[in-house]
Write a structure and sequence with these properties.
Its main location: membrane. Pfam families: ActD, NrfD. It is a multi-pass membrane protein. By secondary structure, the chain is of the alpha+beta class. It has a domain of 433 residues: Formate dehydrogenase/DMSO reductase domain (Formate dehydrogenase/DMSO reductase fold). Strands 4-7-3-8 form a four-stranded antiparallel beta sheet, with helices on one face. Strands 1-2 form a two-stranded antiparallel ribbon. The longest helix has 34 residues. The chain is globular.
């Protein structure tokens, strides 16, 4: 295994250099990364892919069939009965939404903590989030019974001028899940922009090139664009991190704020967040281990180091989940509440006790095998454990939701819950839908982050041999000159050339690279990106919008003509009276206000990057240079001095670029 030498601590501290496993093996080059990742999309689908798509597609077909059946027949075809009115439908919603939380949270948190090994797993994790949320949305949508009345949850007044109750947990879920899905899609798509540009520059089919060009907003690979892009990526990751924690807390609070034994506990919010990371990493391993086995070239980018790190995360989060289980048992005993005590005793000794032991065995005991290096490094041991962990997490939700509801406060209302074939059909159909969507994703977009993986390559491997002779070229007679371009063999040469170009006094020039090069902003003296300022303004606008909405629909106001005489009160639109609670209840409005703040901030970050980068670009003159157009998103490093610069001279500028070590110097027409 190739290894990179990294020194721990400051230079000159005297500590020995530690040999750490490389995150990209076999000394691969940037062009190889492009070929390996893009080939999954570009080459014909293998036979195994067709078999898997057909199998999971047929399984996913159970979803529309079951949905049509129980809508046409009635909700009674489910196993719901008193006292279990929340059955497998809500259980599966929580199961999928927790997996969905993990993907974006993993990508964002690992980005903030500068964990470079995330670059090989973040794209699959973000895609997994979107597909899991889609599967989760199926269950509450049809659990409401009258699906055609779903629009009552949308925050618009209906014909009787009755607005939705923004103090209700059901509407919290509507805002939380809707915002989470929207922002997760935006975060995933934002990260895809440079990789879609790589597909654009590689394809030879005109319709694909135009489609990819539209999807990547005319990405050029300019260092100035990378400057704003990185700032926007961090801002969106920041709001996504807050969003994931808030959504998991809202979903868990739906349970914790009730008085049902087994639910009324303050440990639910952190427990749900930990469980989300736990089940999410298990699902990522479930997806990536077969992926690297099916495409052997990806093994150099999804390395044993990545598997080892994910196994360690599973060990840590599994231990935290076990701590939560033990705390629940302790509090049930120590709290001296007979209902709580019986609920947990029933989980362990009741008719559904196998779910509790499966939950504890798969989620707490099984991850302890990852204390051993062999279990962490063996892909299929890790994969098998990950599958069983997700089975255990499903049993955890069954134990929390179903088993807690089966034994009500009154023994006369006790009844054992039995799911019907409709319940199981919808669940297994959602499993098929999840894997079916992921298989389609593999054939449409890069499953690994191309640009980010290139930043993991060692500097000696990034240098590319270039011809020593310059390319004498001139535009056709009558064509206008855009500028003069030169190619450099490495990012270090490009950084030095950029610094010298700035010192020379050139104003209108830019550099182009296939990935962000740290230090270029200092070499080019780029001012701090203003993306964060616009994100702050967008978030404040969302907060003000939310406050205006909940205030206008909740607080009554005096009539202008009658207030001085009668003092009668009437709502701005409709004053919602909920069990005598205050009209304006700030704690109850926090979920709605927070989700709107995050939603506005995320979209503002995206739009700020687009506008500050002067995107979209239907056309750019640098694409007239074929070498730059082909390789600016692959493995090329370019510097272009524009003809409008006051210091530009075809002869002197050429000599200057040559003195910097530039090769393939080309005159670019407009």
């Amino acid at each position: 295994m190739a290894a990179v030498k990294e020194t721990v601590g400051r230079e000159g501290s005297g500590r020995a250099a530690l040999a750490r496993p490389a995150l990209v093996l076999n000394e691969r080059e940037a062009s190889w990364v492009n070929d390996a990742v893009c080939s999954v999309v570009e080459q014909p689908a293998p036979f195994w892919w067709w078999l898997a798509v057909i199998a999971f597609g047929l399984l996913a077909g159970a979803v529309p069939l079951v949905v049509v059946y129980f809508i046409s027949t009635g909700l009674g075809v489910w196993g719901l009965q008193s006292p279990v009115f929340w059955g497998i439908a809500i259980l599966n919603f929580v199961f999928w939404i927790e997996i969905g939380h993990a993907g974006t949270l993993i990508s964002a948190i690992l980005l903030f903590t500068r964990q470079r090994w995330r670059n090989s797993v973040n794209r699959a994790a973000e895609a997994m989030t979107i597909f899991a949320v889609l599967c989760a949305a199926v269950f509450p949508l049809f659990h409401i019974g009258r699906q055609w009345m779903f629009w009552y949850m949308v925050p618009v007044p209906e014909s009787y001028a009755v607005w939705q109750n923004f103090r209700g947990p059901l509407l919290w879920d509507e805002f939380a899940v809707g915002t989470y899905f929207t922002v997760s899609c935006l975060f995933w798509y934002f990260g895809l922009l440079p990789d879609i540009a790589s597909l654009r520059d590689r394809t030879t089919k005109l319709w694909k090139k135009r489609l990819y060009h539209v999807l990547c907003w005319g990405w050029t690979g300019s260092v100035r664009v990378w400057h704003h892009y990185e700032a926007g990526y961090l801002c969106i990751a920041g709001v996504v991190s807050v969003l994931v924690i808030s959504v998991a807390s809202v979903v868990s609070t739906d349970f914790a704020t009730t008085l049902v034994p087994g639910w009324h506990t303050t440990i639910f919010p952190p427990d749900f967040i930990t469980g989300a990371i736990f089940s999410g990493f298990a699902m990522i391993v479930t997806l990536l281990v077969p992926l690297r086995a099916a495409y052997p070239r990806l093994k150099d980018m999804i390395t044993p180091k990545h598997l080892d790190n994910m196994a360690k995360v599973l060990l840590a989060t599994g231990s935290l989940v076990g701590y939560s289980y033990l705390i629940e048992l302790f509090m049930a005993w120590y709290g001296a509440n007979p209902f709580e005590r019986y609920t947990f005793l029933n989980r362990i000794t009741g008719p559904d006790r196998f779910t509790y032991f499966a939950m504890f065995g798969f989620n707490v005991i099984l991850p302890q095998i990852f204390w051993f290096r062999r279990c962490r490094s063996h892909p299929w041991i890790l994969w098998t454990a990950s599958v069983l962990i997700n089975v255990g997490m499903w049993f955890e939700r069954y134990s929390i939701i179903v088993v807690s509801l089966e034994r009500d406060f009154l023994p006369s209302s006790w009844r054992h819950y039995l799911p019907t074939w409709v319940d199981w059909g919808l669940f297994f159909g959602s499993v098929g839908l999840f894997f079916f969507l992921f298989l389609l994703f593999l054939r449409v977009l890069p499953a690994l982050s191309i640009a980010e993986i290139k930043t993991l390559l060692g500097k000696p491997e990034r240098k590319r041999h270039l011809e020593t002779a310059t390319k004498e070229s001139a535009p056709n007679p009558g064509e206008q000159i855009y500028g003069l371009g030169a190619e450099f063999s490495s990012e270090e040469e490009l950084r030095q050339a950029s610094e010298e170009t700035r010192k020379k006094g050139y104003v209108w020039w830019d550099a182009y690279a296939p990935y962000p090069i740290h230090g270029m902003e200092r070499a080019m003296q780029l001012s701090k990106s203003r993306v964060s300022f616009f994100v702050l303004m967008g978030g404040l606008l969302g907060l003000v919008t939310g406050i205006a909405m909940v205030t206008a629909t909740s607080i009554p106001r005096p009539q202008f003509l009658e207030s001085f005489t009668t003092g009668q009160l009437q709502g701005l639109f409709y004053a919602t009276v909920v069990q005598g609670k205050p009209y304006f209840s700030l704690p109850a409005f926090v979920p709605v206000l927070l989700e709107l703040t995050i939603l506005f901030a995320a979209f503002t970050a995206f739009l700020a990057v687009v506008l500050l980068s002067r995107l979209p670009r239907p056309y750019h003159p640098v694409w007239n240079w074929g070498e730059l157009a082909r390789r600016a998103t692959n493995d090329g490093f370019f510097l272009v001095i524009e003809a409008r610069d006051p210091l530009f001279s075809p002869t002197e500028s050429r000599q200057f670029l040559e003195s910097l070590g530039g090769r393939q110097i080309t005159m670019i027409s407009r």
